[in-house]
């Protein structure tokens, strides 16, 4: 089957389907009073479907139609399909518009009507979105120079990864002066100081490099890294703000260096954390492993992906491999999370104490010990670690003293009920709200509130919510139909 996509420039062709109107010339999708300006590739993809409804389109055909000027693989198509589904409000498990034909391609289901030379509806939409790879075209394609990636995922496993910043001299060919490389290396070190002002300063300085040296790909990745760090500081609750730019950087880098393992790692991370698109994430991680087999962060990222899928055995194996490749990674807490999710609390506690007794003090260690103590029924240890966490986040001394009195009088459940009632918006070992409030409610025995906030965590796609079906903390809710509905929603969304 042969197809050719037609970009509408000189005339207005409008497509109508299922109460929606699509104007390809303006990349505009309209439903009622709601207007969306689609990214160029997403608009091209929708146009391909509208021009050939109810026809099976293979993956290769769609790639040829949507990327006629570029060499891309199926991962780019998967990302575009995911974005189009999101724009349409479609569900890949119960599709109204786009049906996946496993191993073959896709099929557009909705009936499409079109009309030519239609008057454009009045709209205040912005101009057509420019091409995704709009940064200046580099004069030559180079191998990447890495900026470090802080892949602090849902359970907060690897915040310390900011300490891993490969040098710019890892490149196979110098593209700028030694002075600029040194400047960039300094920025990667500055990324380790994860406070908002520092990250904004890194972005400002990296942009100056990209302006003078548009072919220097590592500077773009450094900007993406800093944006990720800013979102991390807000527990990724604002990842949607940064996602379009980070994805644009990934596309830009991969268009010039398709074997850039770190860029593939970013793609997998965003698909997993921001979109819960685990099929896309898994494919991206495989490419990251293929192209950067010696990058420890690739192993960490893929291991956490496996944990979210409940594949603890393989996650364990990857952590072991990481430690063999670089014994320095024994100082991180990753393995304790595997043990904890498996219900082996003694091993999880021993792993944390091994690190806490010999490494620099870590707030993350206290969070993990707090969770382990709660899961193992050690209320005294649970409250002692909670006290330390409350001090770390600078809760008022009088409040902490009140909590101690409450614990001695009424026990741990009353303490967490108080935290829930006060809507404490701090990370006290159980992430940030709304998931934190759900976890407080479980510990307090307030299951109705727990279900309420679990649903809210799923509604907002809070990254750690993907662990709800796996986390033993939620075992008291397991028999409740409303909790089972929560876990079913997660299963349906993340394509396990």
UniProtKB/TrEMBL annotation:
Residues 112-140 are annotated as: Disordered. Residues 12-110 bind DNA. PROSITE patterns: OMPR_PHOB. Residues 12-110 form the OmpR/PhoB-type domain. SUPFAM superfamilies: C-terminal effector domain of the bipartite response regulators, TPR-like. InterPro entries: OmpR/PhoB-type_DNA-bd, Sig_transdc_resp-reg_C-effctor, TPR-like_helical_dom_sf, WH-like_DNA-bd_sf. Keywords: DNA-binding. GO terms for molecular function: DNA binding. GO terms for biological process: phosphorelay signal transduction system; regulation of DNA-templated transcription. This is OmpR/PhoB-type domain-containing protein.
């Amino acid at each position: 089957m042969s197809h050719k996509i037609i970009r509408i420039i000189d005339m207005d062709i409008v497509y109508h389907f299922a109460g929606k109107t699509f104007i390809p010339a303006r990349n505009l999708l309209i439903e009622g009073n709601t207007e969306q300006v689609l990214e160029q590739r997403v608009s091209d993809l929708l146009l391909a479907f509208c021009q050939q409804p109810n026809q099976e389109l293979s993956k290769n055909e769609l790639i040829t139609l949507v990327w006629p000027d570029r060499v891309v693989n199926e991962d780019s198509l998967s990302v575009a399909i995911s974005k189009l589904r999101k724009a349409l409000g479609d569900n890949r498990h119960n599709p109204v518009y786009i049906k996946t034909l496993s191993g073959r391609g896709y099929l557009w289901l909705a009936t499409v009507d079109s009309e030519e030379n239609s008057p454009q509806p009045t709209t205040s939409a912005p101009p057509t979105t420019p091409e995704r790879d709009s940064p200046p075209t580099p004069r030559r394609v180079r191998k990447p120079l890495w900026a470090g990636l802080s892949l602090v995922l849902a359970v907060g496993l690897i915040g310390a990864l900011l300490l891993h910043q490969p040098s710019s001299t890892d490149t196979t060919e110098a593209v700028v002066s030694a002075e600029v490389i040194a400047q960039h290396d300094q920025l990667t070190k500055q990324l380790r100081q994860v406070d908002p002002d520092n990250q904004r300063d890194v972005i400002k300085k990296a942009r100056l490099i990209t302006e003078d040296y548009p072919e220097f790909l590592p500077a773009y990745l450094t900007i993406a890294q800093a944006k990720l760090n800013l979102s991390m500081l807000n527990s990724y609750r604002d990842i949607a703000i940064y996602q379009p730019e980070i994805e644009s950087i990934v596309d830009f880098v991969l268009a010039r260096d398709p074997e850039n393992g770190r860029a593939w790692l970013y793609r997998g991370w965003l698909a997993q954390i921001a979109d819960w698109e685990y099929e896309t994430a898994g494919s991206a991680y495989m490419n990251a492993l293929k192209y950067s087999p010696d990058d420890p962060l690739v192993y960490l990222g893929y291991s956490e992906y496996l944990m979210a899928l409940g594949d603890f055995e393989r996650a364990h194996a990857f952590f072991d491999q990481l430690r063999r490749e670089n014994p320095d990674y024994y100082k991180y807490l990753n393995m304790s999370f595997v043990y904890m999710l498996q219900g082996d609390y003694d091993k999880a506690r021993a792993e944390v104490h091994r690190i806490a007794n010999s490494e620099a003090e870590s707030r993350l260690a206290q969070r993990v010990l707090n969770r382990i103590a709660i899961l193992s029924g050690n209320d005294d240890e649970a409250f002692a670690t909670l006290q330390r966490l409350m001090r770390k986040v600078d809760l008022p001394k009088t409040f902490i003293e009140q909590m101690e009195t409450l614990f001695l009088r009424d026990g741990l459940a009353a303490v967490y009920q108080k935290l829930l009632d006060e809507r404490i918006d701090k990370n006290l070992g159980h992430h940030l709200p709304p998931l934190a409030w759900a976890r407080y409610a479980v510990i307090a025995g307030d299951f109705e509130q727990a279900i309420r906030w679990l649903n809210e965590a799923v509604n907002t796609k809070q990254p750690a919510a993907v662990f709800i079906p796996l986390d033993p903390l939620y075992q008291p809710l397991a028999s409740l139909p409303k909790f089972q509905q929560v876990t079913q929603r997660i299963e349906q969304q993340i394509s396990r």
